[in-house]
């Protein structure tokens, strides 16, 4: 038969283990909260950076002439195309998108 003294000792060990585990859970909870804050800051920074990069890309695309055509011609070209270089400045029409050129009745040159 187990004595009362041994039962008390067993309960004391169990109580000690519970206290240690509670302290570990509290420590892990604090660590988890800190990690969540760090990840949130990094995520917010990435989202902000992504938005800034997207806006810059849109601005660059809108400012840059991607296609040119002659007022008297029927095709549009990339600015680097030899045919585009022959267009006189007064007859040059600029487009920022392929769709804009197509919507104005121009057909694509084989350089596109």
What would your notes on this structure say?
With 112 residues, the protein is α+β, with helices and mostly antiparallel strands. It folds into two domains: 1-63; 64-108. Helix content is 62%, strand content 12%. The chain has three helices and four strands. Strands 3-1-2-4 form a four-stranded mixed β-sheet. It starts with a helix and ends with a strand.
Quickly give the structural class.
alpha+beta
Helix-residue proportion = 55-70%
From the N-terminal CA to the C-terminal CA, the straight-line distance is 95 Å
Count of individual helical segments: 3
Strand share of the residues? 5-15%
- Give the neighbour order of strands across the main sheet: 3-1-2-4
Q: Any idea what the radius of gyration is?
A: 36 Å
Tally of distinct domains: 2
Q: What sort of overall outline do the alpha carbons produce when their principal axes are compared?
A: rod-shaped
The count of DSSP E runs of length 2 or more, i.e. the number of strands, is 4
H/E series: HEEHEHE
Q: Which whole number gives the mean pLDDT?
A: 87
What's the main sheet like? Answer: 4 strands, mixed
Q: Regions with pLDDT < 50 over 5+ consecutive residues?
A: none
